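Late entry, written up from scratch paper. The run itself happened at the end of the previous shift, but nothing got recorded in the book at the time, so transcribing now.
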Amino acid sequence: MRTLVLGLAALALAGSLAAQRRARIGPTVSTISIEDGSGTSRSYTSFGGSFAFLSSDDGEIGVAVSRYGDLSSNSCVRQMTFFGVESNYYPVGAKGIAPFASTAIGLARVTDQDVGLLGICSSAQATNAIGLGFGLGLRLNLGTHAAALVEGRFFQVPNSAIQALEGRANVSVGFGKPRQTQLLNGTLGPAVGLLLRLGGPLEGRGPTLGVRFRRDTKKAGALGLQIDYASLRVTTGCSSNCEPSAVLFAPGYEPSLYPAWGRLYADVGLLLAGFPSAGSDRGIAQGAHGGLGADILTGGSLMVNVNTRVLWLQRNNRNNVFLLQGGVSISPRLERAIESR
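Output as recorded:
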């Protein structure tokens, strides 16, 4: 996951000006990594396809289906078919080499057998549940008629053993009238931070590494999104698997002031944390975040962001956790957006 976010940050500045077709369709393959109850990680392959269309200069929405034919770590059957609605957010447009943040929600049909007495598998039971996913990806446009997408995401089916990290790849053919777009005022860059415990039984045990997205609304503020990989430690009430890692997904709104040196803003939004490892926190925790930050213009083409915010999470056992995150990121500056004020 760390390699993914650093690779996205390195490629974020590249791009071309080719017009894009309004829709695309093509096959998808993925590798999903699931930990069993003993903490052993196993990888499985899925196949499927997706259909999506550009709903705006910076957004794409579509539908996808994936078939996971074998997710079992023993002789019993565990299979899943996922039908989902997917949304990709392109902060610097969908042209050329285009990084994006992805979200997905849909119906997961899971067939699962449990191991009973004497190691005998129970009868196969098919159940329907909601599946959720969020992550980061990179789109490479191959002219105007084809595109390749790679993505890393956290994926969960609540109340099941499927809480996992997944890598996906898609090749699509584009069709429809070409969409002539302009590069909007969006930017992104690598981010690093520290987590300090304010309350509750979780604390950081290392720096957070991630990517920070930002898009100017041309009004009183901006839309922000930060995705981090965080190493954590359970401080109380834990007997095993006490050092989980999580993927933090934090969209927010940023009401702003614009002094001559850059931007001063407040930040408020929702927070999701995906825990793929076995343990009491495995799955998705939810909460909110809020804080203050500043974009400082440099003499060159970059701007430096410094921020601090309070994170609130509610764990699976209903315990509340409060963390203080301080961070720094670097991204291309938005000269036109700032100078127009």
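The longest strand covers residues 125-142.
(Scratch paper discarded after transcription.)
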